[in-house]
Amino acid sequence: MSSKKYNLKKIKSLPTFEDDLKEKLKDPKFKQGFDLAYKRWGIAREIIEARKKAKMTQKDLAKSLKTSQSFVARVENGGQNLTIDVLSRLADVLSAKLKKPVKFEIVGKI
Questions:
Q1: Is-contact 77 47, C-beta < 8 A?
Q2: Has residue 27 been placed in a domain?
Q3: Nearest to 56 by CA among 72, 79, 78, 39
Q4: pTM of the entire structure?
Q5: CATH number at residue 64
Q6: Quick check: helix, strand or coil at residue 69?
Q7: Is there a contact between 37 and 25 (Cβ–Cβ < 8 Å)?
Q8: Mean pLDDT, to the nearest integer, of 23-44?
Q9: Which of 2-11, 66-75, 93-102 has the lowest mean pLDDT?
Q10: What is d(CA 64, CA 56) in angstroms, rounded to the nearest whole number?
Q11: Which of 4, 8, 87, 91 has the fewest Cβ atoms surrounding its Cβ within 10 A?
Q12: Within a domain: residue 11?
């Protein structure tokens, strides 16, 4: 049994993940990378949900797409850069529909 004592005041004063993220998002380069990763994650979640609703495994989906299971895994972990053609094929194979795949909203000066 460990006899280590912790200073609770010190632990409570540590920044939370949210505090740390809020601070890091002030850096434009970090924010740009974070925003891209968040968008990829959102698309990946949608693909996983659609695959599960279709009662398909990654291997089943890969076979239908005529690709490898590792490609599907990269898609689902956000590590694969997707083209419009791949998104369209995914939608077809999963009997899904792409809803407004791209919508531009001007948020700043050009």
A1: no
A2: yes
A3: 72
A4: 0.74
A5: 1.10.260.40
A6: helix
A7: no
A8: 94
A9: 2-11
A10: 10
A11: 4
A12: no
